[in-house]
Amino acid sequence: MTVVRRNKVSNKKVNVKLEKQSRIGDSGRVKKETGRRKIKREPLDTIAVKQEEFSEEDLKNLKLLGLTISKFRTRCSRLLKGFEQKPESVQFEIPTTDLKRKPKLRYRPPNGTILDISKLDFDRPLEDQIELSDVYFLHHAITYSKRVVMVIGAGVSVGAGIPDFRSSNGLFQGLATKSSGSGKNLFDYNVFRSDGSIKKFESMIHKLYTLSNECDPTYYHHMIDKISEQGRLLRLYTQNIDCLDVQLPHLKTKIPLTFHKPYPKCIQLHGNIQLMNCSKCRYITQLNETFFKKAPNTEGRRLIVRCPECQEMNKVRDIAGKRLQNEGILRPRIVLYNEFHPDGEIIGSITESDIKSRPDCLIVTGTTLKIPGVRRLVKEMARSVHANKGYVIWVNIDPPTQSIVDYVEYFDLLVIGSCQMVPGLVSLYDYVYKPKKRRRKVNTKVETLKSEKIRVA
Ligand SMILES: [Zn+2]
């Protein structure tokens, strides 16, 4: 095959013979095919087809997609390029954005649209598996929103190796007995009523504490951290006590929370497994392995002990001849069921301030919203986000129950599948499928979306 090119110096026409392994690059210049460009992935190899190899049906499909052969080729070469230049670290990084300009949203899925990514295979073209228009919306929300509010639950940490509380192989399993009922009871305030249940509680805390130290933050945690680094995270509300989130550099929290602004980026709704505190004098100390070893004078208990600070105080009072006071209990700084939330009031005022800051995106991830307080927070936040024409997205392995859908009212998109796929999906879309700036002039984006609709019809 030969093509005609102009010599840049003499401006004369020259015939350039294309060798078998050459191809015309995006810039129009002839590029030598290097070994690095060859991709061994099976489904993608079939993309590099010649024009005469398109069957009539293929051409019809292309027409339906609103693509010409050359457009299709460009897209494929970008797809190949995307896979080629994908070191592990880049693949899961969300794209950096220009904060000054937020592109106009060109497509909003109908309320409650489901985007099922549970069986998504990144090695196959996305358009064969899911609706690209929904991915466009997800990408737009995560990449361009300026005041993102995230609400996360145990589902986000499952990818790190910390079991979910409610699932069949979750933390509660193996702890449930006839006497203690379901394992959930171990997270109930009544656990402190008997020595037997305290011992079980201690072993569960030990398990969780060890896991928390051994496990690393997941891709999804890193994605949230990246959004925060870009200055676009308004707040992360976490129900997790494993501290995988707060150990990231841009998701720090403050303990205890105070009414002083600015509030920390991450709000731990249910406490923190790494800390112990006294229920009476608010003394806080770091939890460590020594708490799990038997110590003298602790009535056989290891973890749940009398507060040393309160004891010290009583000694002083004793010397001063004052009446002794009740001593508090030093226990893990986590909020149990049926327990008054020590930071409830502060969290309430932080939520209120966030709603006033006009958030433009709410992403609820890895939680079933079983806790009434969190459910209310999501509802109020979702209403505020929608009032600002923002985006409300649900990400979980299961869709929300009907009662949750009815209660929250606004869910633009329900992403069903592992949340760990989301960063990869967004970056892949950004890299491969997002229409280029040059093409935006001819409204390719709208064209693509239209063609998506045709496919649905
Ligand atoms: Zn105390």
UniProtKB/TrEMBL annotation:
GO annotations of cellular component type: mating-type region heterochromatin; nucleus
GO biological process, one term: negative regulation of transcription by RNA polymerase II
Sequence ranges assigned to domain Deacetylase sirtuin-type in this UniProt record: 125-452
Coiled-coil regions, chain positions: none
UniProt cross-references to Pfam families, sorted A to Z: SIR2
Binding residues annotated for Zn(2+), in chain numbering: 278, 281, 307, 310
Record-annotated active site: 270
Source taxon at top rank: Eukaryota
Entry keyword set: Metal-binding, NAD, Transferase, Zinc
Gene Ontology molecular function, alphabetical: histone deacetylase activity, NAD-dependent; metal ion binding; NAD+ binding
Zinc-finger listed as a keyword: no
Similarity comment: Belongs to the sirtuin family. Class I subfamily.
Protein name: DEBR0S6_05578g1_1
Annotated organism of origin: Dekkera bruxellensis
